[in-house]
C-alpha cells in the first residue's frame, strides 16, 4: 500500500501521462512544488515497489499496477471535489480541502461518498433543498 506521499506522486504522474502522454521529473517537481532531486528519489522508490518503470535519462512509465492505483487516486480526488461542491464548500477552498482530507479517508468512506454524489446527481432537486437549508442556517447564524 502506498504512503500518502507516494500517492501524491502516483496521482501526479498518472495525470501528466493522461494529459501530455509523458511525465518528466521536472514536470512532476513543478506540479508538486518539490525539488527535482526529491522526485528522482521517489521515482526510484516507486520503481522498486513496481508502480512504475524508471530508467535514468530515459523517462518513466507506469506499470499496470501503477496505472490502476493512479486511476483510483484521480477518481478519489475528483469525487471529493464533487462532494465538497455539492455540500456547498466555497470553490476557492475545495482544492486545498481535498488535499487535506484525501489521504485520511478509507476506501470504504470514499465509496460511500461516491454513492452520495451519485444520489445527488440523480436527484438534483435534493441539492436545491440542501442549498435552502444552508441558506436558512446562514441567516439564523447572522441574527
TrEMBL record:
Biological process terms in GO annotation: intracellular manganese ion homeostasis
Subcellular location: Cytoplasm
Main location: cytoplasm
Gene Ontology CC terms, in alphabetical order: cytoplasm
Binding site residues for Mn(2+) 2: 11, 77, 99, 102
UniProt domain HTH dtxR-type: residue ranges: 1-63
An example Gene Ontology molecular-function term: DNA-binding transcription factor activity
One of the Pfam families matching this protein, by short name: Fe_dep_repress
Keywords: Activator, Cytoplasm, DNA-binding, Manganese, Metal-binding, Repressor, Transcription, Transcription regulation
Stated regulation of activity: DNA binding is strongly activated by Mn(2+).
Entry binding sites for Mn(2+) 1: 8, 99, 102-103
Subunit structure comment from the entry: Homodimer.
Similarity remark: Belongs to the DtxR/MntR family.
Function: Central regulator of manganese homeostasis.
Protein name: HTH-type transcriptional regulator MntR
Name of the encoding gene: mntR
Amino acid at each position: 500500500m502506498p504512503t500518502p506521499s507516494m500517492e501524491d506522486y502516483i496521482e501526479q504522474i498518472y495525470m501528466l501521462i493522461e494529459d501530455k502522454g509523458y511525465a518528466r521529473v521536472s514536470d512532476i517537481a513543478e506540479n508538486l512544488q518539490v525539488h527535482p532531486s526529491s522526485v528522482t528519489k521517489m521515482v526510484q522508490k516507486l520503481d522498486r515497489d513496481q508502480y512504475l518503470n524508471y530508467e535514468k535519462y530515459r523517462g518513466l512509465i507506469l506499470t499496470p499496477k501503477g496505472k490502476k492505483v493512479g486511476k483510483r487516486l484521480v477518481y478519489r480526488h475528483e469525487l471529493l471535489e464533487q462532494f465538497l461542491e455539492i455540500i456547498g464548500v466555497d470553490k476557492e477552498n475545495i482544492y486545498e480541502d481535498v488535499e487535506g482530507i484525501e489521504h485520511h479517508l478509507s476506501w470504504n468512506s470514499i465509496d460511500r461518498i461516491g454513492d452520495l454524489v451519485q444520489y445527488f446527481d440523480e436527484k438534483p432537486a435534493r441539492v436545491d433543498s440542501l442549498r435552502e437549508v444552508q441558506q436558512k442556517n446562514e441567516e439564523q447564524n447572522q441574527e
